[in-house]
Amino acid sequence: MRIKNEKELKILREGGRRLANIMDIVSQIAAPGITTAELDRRAEELILKQGGQPAFKGYKTADAKIPYPSSLCVSVNDEIVHALPSSRILKDGDIASLDLGMKWRGFYTDMAVTVPIGNVDEKSSRLIAVTKKALALGIGAIKDGGCVGDIGFSVESYVKLKRFYVVRELVGHGVGRAVHEKPEIPNWGKRGVGFLLEEGMVLALEPMVNVGTEKIKLTKDGWAWKTADGSRSAHFEHTVLVTKIGAEILTKI
Known about the structure:
By secondary structure, this protein is α+β, with helices and mostly antiparallel strands.
């Protein structure tokens, strides 16, 4: 992974701030009665208005039959990540994970949030809160000279304590020049083990937490991942910069 210089970091900070603003707007309109396709339409409209490009649209993986056709991933209830926007109407009591990436002036930032749709049950609220805090703890474990394993250890330890399950097959990643760069950032690990963190690295941390099992399955379209047991899942993500003393969140307002 290439260390970003100050000129590149200035662009990433501004791109991240703009992406966070877009996510904030899209999150607020995610409510009962709206379709996931409409959320995608609004997200893309806002990205283009900022002079950016949707990072995910046209992206292709080895498993996918088609390139990702949309700008926003909208994963509902037992869907973990990468679900395709559609005519699906969000209902009161659903939870929706919104994952959005933007290329701005040549550099990519990436973030995700899970939002309650209307009134959700206690377990779903707790799942969302635990996943959000797991991301904060992972970010708090970052420092120059630390290891990738420090991040995963912090995330998984907390999630286990709360009796939920981290997804082990899907991981975070480096980001910046490309939407996915090395190294991989698992949400599990051991302290002091793994890729060495260095000041100037830009990473996308993204805990995915399930209610009932760590096991997952891929849907027929080759994009959406779901929990194997049909239980709910939540997902939070920030793009962060490794600094001398810790981490700076780039995808913030």
